[in-house]
Design a protein that fits this description.
heterodimer, A: about 500 residues, Rossmann fold, 9-stranded mixed beta sheet, about 30% strand, elongated, disordered C terminus, B: about 150 residues, mainly alpha, two-stranded antiparallel ribbon
Chain lengths: ~500, ~150
Amino acid sequence: MSTQDRVTINKLSTGVPGLDEIVGGGLPEFSFNIIAGAPGSGKTTLAHQFVFANASTERPALYFTVLGESAIKMLRYQQQYTFFDPAKLAGAIRFINLSQVVLEKDLGAVLEEITKEVEKANPAVVVVDSFRTMVRKPQGDMDLQSFIQQLSLFLASWQATTFLIGEYAEDELRDNPIFTVADGLFWLRQTTERNSIVRKLQVIKLRGQDSVPGLHTFRITDAGVQAFSRTFGLTARKRNPPSDRRLSFGVPELNKMLDGGVREGDSVLVAGSSGTGKSVLATQFIAEGTRQGEPGIVAVFEERPEAYTERATSLGLDLETPQKEGKLTILYLRPLDLSVDETMQSILDAVQKISAKRLVIDSLAGFEMALSPGFRADFRESLYRMIFALTGIGVTILSTVEVDESFTEFPFSTYSISFLCDDILRLRYVSIDGQLRKIMVVIKMRGGNHAKDIREYEITSKGVVILGKRLTNYQSLISGIPEHSNRSRQKEQPSQDTGIEHKT
Amino acid sequence: MTTLSRMRDLAQRLLDYEAFAGNASEPGESATLRVYEKLRQGLGEFAGVAGFQSLASRALALARTEAPSLNAVRVSTDGALQGLGEIEHQFDIDKVQAGEFPAGEGGIILIARLLGLLLIFLGEALTLSLLQITWPGAALDECSSENGRKA
């Protein structure tokens, strides 16, 4: 069958930010869906968002409430959400209470009542909340499976997109014939980890759609449910082909060490202990970008944007003007109870808003500490997904990370995240001639040449300034406690020409 | 204007509307009962019979503190009002005899209290949206305009 012969399935917006991406662009029209989860997991709110997003006076929504919370109380609470539009209750959305029918009659009567109302209203959306309560009542001639089967057939024929809401525990998922009937099965989970609540959503099943697998974090705010796709909404976007363009660091000698600069779309890790100038270097990188017309984002966790801007000014770097011009955004993220995906979504939103080409995360340690304890376990994995997604669309990312200064070891990163970086720049202290001096070295540069030189640098009023040529007078510089070599009395060797390493 | 007096105004408008509509279709039928029955039907649809019955019982209890004559009125298990017709008839006799007792005052208070409860639980915007399903247009116009909303 050719593509043009196939039926087109319209996709309806879920009304839940982030969920359309997760379900593959929207919910299939006329689908029969089940939203399952424990009490308080957000099932009703999610259904309401869908209803308010899709109901109209021409094709209204019928919201059947069965045994459960009082309908008046439900509306009292639900109207607190910003998506709730009271005007829609005057014709576009009808709430119909079936509790009396359930109490006095059987499922056959419930089906009859729903059928009658659907035929009368010709709805686009039908919700039964909560159908699970009907199961707990001894039934008459019709069992629940048969009820669901007939309801599904009827509502599909009447061109209604349907949600059944039910309280289910995890172990009820297996071998449940009710779930077989459904086109879509959405499972909402809520767990407590230390002092935080972690909410996750899973699309267990969705016929006819390529949904994003896995558990997606979601949050319930005054705007309702907001979901955070594991792919951050970037799956649909094409990955840019690798670029050969080099981005200047704003430090000429460092550019030379990097064979002209950082390759566009790379993820760069600047690792070093406290006070080695990681943030200074990051600031120079972002300032150089804005100077060259490349919008940038700085995500800071350890100081406020004002302080960050002021510190840049003291280094002769103007971050104020690009901020005013909308070419630079400094995000101060201290969410504490936010999920890692949610925090990363804030960064992504900022990147997309100004079409940023450079992103600085200062620092990864601060980022991790800012997260709710329950989400820290996901940190590396989420960071990997975000970096992969952003570099794929050509954003160059510079992350700083603090490493414990050891005078016997030379760790790249205590976070074991070096695998997700294309380039690693290591800054460290060394003890030379009775002074604590600083050296830098390019550890890794994927797909390019880089210098093997160990260079001394200083932090001055102009930022990081690399001094002289490579240090040839010492042995074991990276140990932090070098020894004078015999070459100290010999003529210094040329720096760049012989110091370039080619890696692919 | 207090919430209670605003709800009395709204109740009065609904009664006037139904009195006018009633005279045209079924002369002699109580306007209070017509308003109450429409509320029972409309609110019962989403709140359920039991939900409406409990709201109406609460409204009646509150209204009795203002109009003791409502002691004779009952809300049945299906939410229907019993006994209002009799006391309204008595009001009319009293009005003729004393020349000053306001006819249907107990009914207005009851309806106002019921609307007041909706206002407390659902807020003004949602209450008006729900009333608009039953009374589109004229009956709610003044109230809608006051709140910047048009029916």
